[in-house]
Every structure is written in structure tokens, then in C-alpha cells.
Amino acid sequence: MEYTVKQLADLSGVSARTLRYYDQIDLLKPSYMTDKRYRIYKEEQVDRLQQILFFRSLDFSLTKIKQVMDSKNYSELEALEQQQKLLLIQKNHLDSLLTNIQKTIEHYKGEKIMTDSEKFAAFKENAIKDNEKKYGDEIRKNYGVETVYQANKKYRNLTKEQFTKMNNIEKQLIDDLNILSENPELDSELSQKIYLEHKEWLEYSWPNYSKKAHRELVQMYVNDGRFAKYYDDKAGKPVTELLKKVVEHFTE
Amino acid sequence: MEYTVKQLADLSGVSARTLRYYDQIDLLKPSYMTDKRYRIYKEEQVDRLQQILFFRSLDFSLTKIKQVMDSKNYSELEALEQQQKLLLIQKNHLDSLLTNIQKTIEHYKGEKIMTDSEKFAAFKENAIKDNEKKYGDEIRKNYGVETVYQANKKYRNLTKEQFTKMNNIEKQLIDDLNILSENPELDSELSQKIYLEHKEWLEYSWPNYSKKAHRELVQMYVNDGRFAKYYDDKAGKPVTELLKKVVEHFTE
DNA sequence: AATAAAGATTGACGCAACGTCAAGGTCAAG
DNA sequence: CTTGACCTTGACGTTGCGTCAATCTTTATT
């Protein structure tokens, strides 16, 4: 059985353009070309396309699909699990967005509306002060914290003092991580200090601390690039992985 | 208070490029331009930017943000509820993907899993062979592999064949690096071979290969003594720096 | 057989939201 | 007067195609 582009398109539900594109990126090549350069597909290609569409339906990138399908020894299972991780991260992200948007909507409806400028007012105060002192870095830090502040509703009940204290602990944490990274010894006092600092920091926003949750959290840090980036940027070098190791060391 | 592009960028945490882009699409115009066409922002724009970033954090498109903010009679509440619906749809979609992928994974697992201990055994088999052939320092080499093996959970779902293949690729890579280091010519076939080997090796554990990430990784190798030591020990001489140069050469 | 309709081909631009150079002006500091 | 930091405007790259446009080839109808 042979198929032209349109026939295969109709058969599979994708567009002809898609098939030409897949040919172009070497994801799905026709069985052969006629002398007039028409693409002809056969059963083998139909099968392959089905596979492709299966992975695509799971939101695999075309690049990844190619890797998985073209490499004999690439484990499909592993690819699936990687993809699952990615999707879980996306889901977490979506969930937090939904929480935020729900809160915002409630605010509006409750007519206890904080104007947006009010929401940012406290932060701006800091920004302006800092700016006048020309400590550019500090501004960025505060802004970073502000982002977290928005994302995490739990911060909302902190007093100003607590908030400041959290910031200081975090700062110290980053510094210590920086130092430790030069001589990464998990069994050191510095290492333990880091663990305790991170724990203390967490306890400002966690209802009840558990080692298990702590371990899972740092695992998330590493898996989710946004967390890693947050810490790595602050430290000026990659320290997230180190933090993870430290925490895992003391939570066993 | 007046801000240049950089200052506002630092203050807000977005890039200068983003500000220029927002100007370009008329989302955030500067307060005025100097005679030299420098953008100058004032408080009003800072406020507006904060509004923008707030909506952006909820995954509003920039187009939508513009609509909401520029239209006097466009209800923010309505927009929020609309966005909430969109996010819920996405969430449902994600949930169904996750269900599907979970099912598929279970299906796979029902059939062919290599347990960690089995993999470890396979690895040791090789190690012993090598040990018989080569001698003491081979043992150290294999301990190195063991460390990496433990450190990277991603390896855990590789099949026996894949695991072996990865090891072989890495071995070949080291050998090639050794050869190249005697006559370091970045524009050679050997050099390219090394690049491709390292890439292939990475793709066993990376969800998405990109040249950018590849460059960053080898930069890491050099910066982080632990990585460098790993390769240098295996090669018997310092080759990490060379690997970095090779990769950078082919990822430009 | 002539003609029209259907389907095929290869470009090439467009989209979203910027990242990342490149080439070249401007400004404050030393 | 020279750095060096910061500013400007292009313009290409990214992902997965949709959507013309211009130009054959094949098939169907008259």
C-alpha cells in the first residue's frame, strides 16, 4: 500500500505541511520519491508516524522523539519517566498559578481590594531606598524575594521583622554555600550550618518541618531549573546541587 | 526619580532586552527620550511595569495584558476569571497526559526492568574484565564510574545494553581525547568525533540536547574541580580543558 | 484531446517573547 | 584623551507548524 502526502495526512489526521516538515527535519522520511519528486510513504512509515504521534501526544519535543526512536538503545522507559518529571514540574507550576489567581480573584470580589500599587508599595520603598544608596545588587535581591513573596502565599503573614530575618538567613546561606563549594566536605561544621540555615529558613513558611519533605524539596530544586537558577544566580555559581547533597546528608 | 534601561532592568529583575521589546510592542513606553534617544523611565512606568509583571506571572500573554491595562472599561476581574479558565483547561490537559504516561510506564515496567543490582552486576563484570586485562589503576577508574553512577539517578532506568554502551562511548571518548591531546587540532575529524561522542553520551541522560546547554556543561566541568578530576584521572592526564575547547568549537 | 480541478512541489513569512550577538554612538571617570 | 560601562538599532535563532504564493503534475470532466 502506497500513500501520497495527502493520503497519509488524511489517514493520520496531521496536515500535509506537517509531513513535509517531518521530512525536512529527518523525523519521517518517505519510502521513496517519484521521478517528479512526489513523496511516497509505505506501511513502515505509517507505523513510524503512529509512534511519533504517540510521543507527540505526550508533549515530547520532536527532537526528543527523534532521539528516542533513532537510537536503538535509548530506553523508551527512561524517556517516558523524564517526560513525566517535566510534566509534573509543569503541573506544580500551574497549580501555583491557579492558587495565586484564585486568591487574587477573591481579593477583588471581597472588595477588600488592594490596589496593585499597594501590593508593591512595601517593596518599592525598599527599592528606592536601596537605589539611593546605589546598592544595585541589593535591589535585585529584594526583587527576587518579592517574586517568591508573590508566589508563596504563606509569606503573607510574616511581620516585617520576620521577613527581614528570612532575607538575612538566606543571604548567609548563600555565602556559606559559596564557601563550602570551594572545598565540598559534607561532614564539616560548615556543611551542618548550611543545613540548619536552610531548615530555619523553611520553618518560616512551613507549618511543620519534616526531614522527608526537606529532602523532597531540594530534589525539586535540582529538577526544576527555576529554583536552581534562583540559587545559582544569587551565588554567582552553581550551588544548588551542593545544597541538595548537604541536605540529603543531614536528613538521612 | 528617573531610570535608564539598565537601572529599571536591575530594579525590576527583567532584562534590558525585555524593556526594549515592551517599548517596541507599545506595552511599556518610556516617560521620554533624551536627545540622544536614550529611554528614560519614571515612577509611573515603574508602577506600570509592576502591573505588567504581575499579570505576566499569571501567564497572561503580553497582548492580553495590554488589552486589560489599556482598556478603561475592561474589567480586571473578568480577565482574571477568563485566565483562570484557560489555566484550568491546561491543567486538565496536563492531568490527562500524566495519566497516560503513567499507564504507559507501568506497561513498560511490567516487562523489562533491569534492577539496580543487575546493572551494578553488569558493570562489575566489565570492571573485572578490565581489571584482569589492565591492572590497578583500572580499579580506580571503575570506582570513578561507580561514583557517577550513584550520583546520577537518571542512569537507573537504562537497560543493561544502554548502560554498557554508555560506558563504551565514554571510554572511547577518553581514548580519543588522549590522542587528540598529543596534537590538539580543533578543526580535525578526531576533534569532531570527540564532540559527537560527548553529545551522544549526554543524550542518554538529557531530556533535550542543546548546544547552549552543552557549552555551559563543559564550562562547568572546568570550573568544578570534581568533574575535571574525574576526566583527568581517567585519561591519566589533563584533558578536561581540551574537551571544553572541542565542545566550544563545535557548538558555536 | 482539451480543460479544469485537485494535488504536488519548493520557498518564505508569521507567530510569542524574548536571548544573543554585532556594529557603532554616548557618558562619566581617571 | 582613553577606557569602560552603558546606550542605540538591527537582525537572526528558537518551536512546530499555518498560511500564502508561484509553479508543476496528475486526475477528472467535458
From TrEMBL, chains A, B:
Keywords: Activator, DNA-binding, Transcription, Transcription regulation. CDD domains: HTH_TipAL-Mta. It holds the Pfam family MerR_1. GO terms for molecular function: DNA binding; DNA-binding transcription factor activity. Residues 1-71 form the HTH merR-type domain. InterPro entries: DNA-bd_dom_put_sf (IPR009061), MerR-type_HTH_dom (IPR000551), MerR_fam (IPR047057), TipA-like_antibiotic-bd (IPR036244), TipAS_dom (IPR012925). The keyword RNA-binding does not apply. This is MerR family transcriptional regulator. The lineage of its organism: Bacteria, Bacillati, Bacillota, Bacilli, Lactobacillales.
